[in-house]
Amino acid sequence: MPALTFPYKRLGPHYAPVVPVALFGRSLSAQTEAYVDSGAFASIFRLGLLAALGLRKEDGRVETFTVGDGGRLKAYAFRLPVQIGPLRFVARATFSNELRIGFNLLGRQTIFDRFDEIAFNERARQVIFRFD
Amino acid sequence: MRREKAAEDPNDRYFNTHFARLVKEHGGEWIVLVDGKLIGIGREKDLGKLMAKARRTHPRSMPFAAPIPARQDLQCLL
Hints:
Oligomer: heterodimer
Number of strands of chain B: 4
Low-confidence stretches of chain A: none
Strand order of the largest sheet of chain B: 3-2-4
Helix content of chain A: under 10%
């Protein structure tokens, strides 16, 4: 089974599964990076990327998520082509600045199910995306 | 099992190489790169201008835009 292997990114004293991701708007596209979070349901990108893709938040569907501390997070949802490595597919991406972390998050919904398996190898500091 | 190591991207390489300094000096801002070259660093409101500059100067390449985590963002990672 083919697989894409990404080394963990060093974040200060820690290493974390941060991978490059490309997002495609109607006419503009942008590369960014996102923390692969198997505990997150949705993929949440920073709101600033919408402008970088030539999209307006008003064109997205407003959704509210409950986060780990019980708080609520308002996000704007879009269905966009997303590319990880050579694989490009349409996925649901939400955009918000209310998560208050310095990263984009890659969650399970419509991302993880594009792959047969996503494995975290902590010892080797690698995240592996396996697909057919 | 066949493994394909993802090709190292020049933007990714730049961001990783300079990451510690960027967090220290520009945490909370955004970085825009293209073809491994720095286009600019600015606040979110400046991102449109930086992306336009990246597309103007490198029309054949896809620009890279990412938030630069602040120090406290790195400390708060679960």
